[in-house]
Amino acid sequence: MEIEAEAVRQSHEQQVLECAEKEVETSRHNEQLTKRLKETERERDSHAGAIRRMLEEAETTRQKHEVEVGRRPSKGQGSEPEGYWKVAHDSAVKHQQTAESARDKQAQKRSHDTYAKEKRLLMEEKAVLERDLAQKVQDNTKLEGKIEEAVQARLSVEGRVKELERDLEARTQALTTSMERREGLEQRSGSEQGSIERWLEFALTTGQISSVQYGEPLTARDGYWTMLQQ
């Protein structure tokens, strides 16, 4: 059980390190995404400023052309009305400005669409990273719960082992006491038996008792056990 708890603890530490590394990587990636987003915004603003400058330059050029054409003498002779070239020039300039404005709007729209697409992709990637991080945190919480359960189980097992050790110690002490008492009784019994055997030997030798008084067998040792049986 202790080995299993240690393995769970090491696995938990490894996953915590992986989660920390993932958080650092996610933070670094978010910083990169934020930097790219700011760069895209600056690029968009730069495009918008360039477009404004182009429009301002076109407006300035148009005004210069108007002033210049307004100063030219009329080239119409006979069938050409007065100011014919000015009207034609104004029409050409207006047509050119309309085309440039359309191109500028398309370029601005493409820039805006590109910015919106990149921003959407960045936000989606950020959402995926946040979900992954939340899942890692949830897994980490579950793993911490399992580790706590393993620790509690280990403490319970250690408590039971201590109880068994105390019980074994008490049983060993009781067995030791019993063996000491048994040895004492055996020594005492051996001493008493020796005394009785010596007395029987003496009594048989001196004729104080008959060898057939207690029946067969006739030895002192067997007579001792015969007396005990009677």
From TrEMBL:
Residues 1-113 are annotated as: Disordered. Residues 1-12, 19-71, 101-113 have a biased composition (Basic and acidic residues). This is Uncharacterized protein. The lineage of its organism: Eukaryota, Fungi, Dikarya, Ascomycota, Pezizomycotina.
